[in-house]
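Hello,

Following up on my earlier ticket. Below are the two sequence lines again, exactly as submitted.
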Amino acid sequence: DVKVTQSSRYLVKRTGEKVFLECVQDMDHENMFWYRQDPGLGLRLIYFSYDVKMKEKGDIPEGYSVSREKKERFSLILESASTNQTSMYLCASRQGAGNTIYFGEGSWLTVV
Amino acid sequence: SQQGEEDPQALSIQEGENATMNCSYKTSINNLQWYRQNSGRGLVHLILIRSNEREKHSGRLRVTLDTSKKSSSLLITASRAADTASYFCATDNSGYSTLTFGKGTMLLVSP
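Thanks for your patience. The regenerated structure is below:
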């Protein structure tokens, strides 16, 4: 079975902290994605990676960075967390363009 | 950026009834996908329909695609309470594409 695992389901962080959200997929997929989901706004793409060490900005990259050192792992980094980054973060992966995207269970981040 | 827009935003029906959700988009696509999300969980893929297909079935799900109208519909027949969830359409275009999601339709199926 396809598996996308997000390491933390619920996190509470303080304003200004550096936050790492980790995502691992076991399907040898080329593409990986980070979305955030907020009520009334749907899913918005933060960053995606189409291969190891490659990354592209999505629609809302400000305040975020990413790292993909290995094919199976895609990390989202909040350099200095702010309260407006309180959200649900969804990691996803797929083999390539035109294919199904598989999602993790999501990480609920609260910044206080 | 291109985005699918679902309609209605919310739908409330009784068990056994059919549920129809619509999706409109703005530019050409390679395929369109439908996803389901239970409250507080990740999204689960339901069905993918390619731009050269007009209709696709999977169990109680029926998806249609009209590329001339840039629209798609998802029909769930004989709904069950367990179908209660949010449903999203997502459009996929070419190149280093990503899926672009709409805001979803929240479906409530009452017993």
